[in-house]
Structure formats: C-alpha cells, structure tokens
Amino acid sequence: MTVMTKPGVYVLLVVGFIGVLFLQSDWLGKRMYPVQYPEDIKRLADKYKQDPYLIAAIIRTESNFDPGVESHKGAFGAMQLMPDTAEWIVETGNFPKDMLSSLDQAEVNVELGSWYLRWLHDQFGGNVTAVVAAYNAGPGNVKRWMQDGRWNGQPETVNDIPFGETRHYVQKVTYFYKKYKKLYPEGLQTTMLNVSSVFGFIRQYAKIL
Hints:
Low-confidence stretches: 193-199
Mean pLDDT: 86
Number of strands: 0
Shape: globular
Number of helices: 10
Order of helices and strands: HHHHHHHHHH
Radius of gyration: 22 Å
CATH topology of the largest domain: Lysozyme
Helix content: 55-70%
Distance between the termini: 17 Å
Largest sheet: none
Number of domains: 2
Structural class: mainly alpha
C-alpha cells in the first residue's frame, strides 16, 4: 500500500479545496460579479423607487464600479454622467450645485444617476428596456425610434434598436441584471472571503495528518 507524504496530502487538500470552489458556482459567481458600495445603491434605489439590481447592472456596465473613471466622450464617474447631463440633473432635481465638483464620489454620482433613472422611468411609463436604452442613447432618440416604428421598446425586439452601441448596451445591462438577481437573491451585498485563512487551515490540517 502506498502511503501519501505530507506534501502530497497538502497538495491533495488544495486541489480538493479549489475543486469545491468550482462546484460552488455562487461563490465563484460573486467573485466574478462583485458589487461595490451596495448600501448606497440600496438606499438610493429606495429613495428614488428604482430596482437596486438595475442600478448595479448599469454601474457594472458603465464603469465596473470605478468611481474615478472618465470615458473618451467625457462621461464621468460610477454611472458615467456626461457634464451637461449632470448639470441638467442638478438644476432640474434641485440638488446642491457643489455636487458637480464631486462626481468622482460614488455616493454623489450614483445619487444623480439614480434620480435620472427615475426621471426616465416616468418618461417611458415604467418600460425598463426603454429606460436602459435611453440612458445610453438619450430619451429623444428612443422616443423617435418608438414613434417612427423602428423599435417598439420591448425586450424581445432589442435587435431592432437602430444604434449598435445602444443595442449592445441594453444586452449587457440585461445580462448583468439577471446575474445579480441570481447571485444576490437576498439583496446586494459585498461578499468577502479571507482565502489566506482558508489555506492556513489547510496547512494546519496537513500537519496533523
């Protein structure tokens, strides 16, 4: 009978641990689709009567939760607000003007973006697919498409959206939305696991063996 050495046991434990992680799809999924500042998202979603999963999906699509990112078009922050759009939101929503100088702060950016989502929600009668398209292409474009019959605003006909960028954007947001709903059924949260402590346990267990 072959007796396994301690290094062999250690390797076996590590391989087994990694195998378990791969089998635990939710654990891996939350590592692949993490959520940053979930408390701000949930609070602002409640404040503006929006779906927190939708806000998270838009942030993931827009900035991957990087509050300091700026696009080549000049959109800024977690929800990638264009300067003129941010100014309009602040003015129309009666927000303090100094918020415009803090768009790199996630809480500020997400608040303005969430307010804008609420405004779009009202403009499109709660049609979430049209809201998402309008967040990317602008409400004027989406209204024209729907009035001209080029797109009916329904999720089943996303491929009819005239702008390729917007079509792809809606598909990405929808994908992330479904992922977050599946991975965080009890609500958005930051999931942390100290992997080093787990490997420490494995080392101690291997010594016992």
